[in-house]
Amino acid sequence: MKKKSGLRYLRYKNLTNELAKYGYEYTVKKAFIIYGMIVLMAAIFGILYKLELKYIATIGIIGVLLSPMVIIQIMKGRYHTTMFSLSNSYMEQFLYSFKRNRTVLNALLETATIFDEGIFHDILEKAIKHIQYTTDSEDPEKEALDIIGEFFRCERVDNIHSFAIAAQRRGGDVSGSIALLTKNRAMWAERISNLQKEFSLVKRNITIALAATLLICILPLYLLGGNLNISSMQLCQISAVVLIGSCMLIYVKADKKLCRSWIEKEADSTCIGKKYIQVRDYDEVKEAKVSKKIAMIPAIILIGGFLYFKNFAILIVGIVVVLFLLNQHKIGHSLAKKKVSKEIEKQFPNWLMEVALLLQTDNVQVAVRKSVENSPEVLSHALEKLIEELEENPNSIEPYHRFLKEYRNPDVQSAMKILYSLSSGNAGDVTKQVEELIERNNSLMDKAEKLSQEDKIAGMKVYILLPSLLASFKLMMDMSLLLVVFLKNLNFGM
């Protein structure tokens, strides 16, 4: 699908429609206020950097072009924060109500009394009426919960709904499972709150870095005056516009990265499934032959260069290059395996949670088979192999033991042993064992999501470094101009 340009939001109608999605009414009056602030900002920068009118106008135009994205991101950020808070409160209340009432309808009726106004109340009412008045559906409760799930688009909400449907059909005491799901929700909410604080801190640091850059780059214009005044020079003026425009662009880009949904699952764009197959099908002998072919030409050039120039530096550099090329297949395999291993560590708990919820109504093999449809890409191939092996040897521990064994993850192996115990009927109290599985999964998910959060925060820190590069560019330009002016004055003085 072709990505639409952000410039389309310069049109008032498009911007108004986009902001309406986040519950913000964008009026003509607000538009004039915003554009007035942009003109004021351009004027302030123009005065501080001693810019000519045409350069002040250029800054104003850049501000106008970027302003729609800033407005959208501010409103989107508020919307996502509200949706996180709302989904967290809903899950907490729904689990509590389901524990008391044991039916989806009564749980929703009680939950609707808590959320007694706003759009979400209308969604709850729609779901309740669907259960009460729909007569031509085989599963009105599931369809009603899907209405709520579509509103949030949150995997955890969907998991809780699946659990409620399964528990209602199965019956029995579900208080232990609800307690563990409640704990899972609380741990998730705490992680997201901590991530919001981290993102807020990163955004503050980016803003401070940009402000410091703009402030520092003003100093050469004021510290030296008289014959060494460079503010009126065209290169100085143009570089100031480039600096200010770049700072504005960095802020918008960083804000866009920081503006994210806290509840929606992010699409995987890493092609991790292909990388898993690459690691699985790795043939060291075959890849070593390819590496030898690749290294052959550089080796010939190395020998020829050394014999011709008699230079040991060429020999040393050449040996390093050739050794790297001879072992590039091992290095590539090692890096790919580490990446896949880290992704498994992140995604396995999500899959395990779905299996644990399916175990409320199904046996282990059926639960594993059903889980494949929504399984993470990094696990799908291994799960298909597991299912094939279980069909051949349904009572054997070996399929469970071999599952992702090559990645040597103790958490995965431990969870698979519990699944085998459940499948073989040696687990004693099945309900208690399932609850133990969910509790183990809670700690795994906490660990996995903390890893994911660390990756997100690390990726944002580059935006803190970019302003220093801009400052270096601007200061080098100004120092060069000062040197030119100084040398000219020096020649005139002579």
TrEMBL record:
TM helices/strands, residue ranges: 31-49, 55-75, 206-224, 230-252, 299-326, 462-487
Keywords: Membrane, Transmembrane, Transmembrane helix
Protein name in UniProt: Flp pilus assembly protein TadB
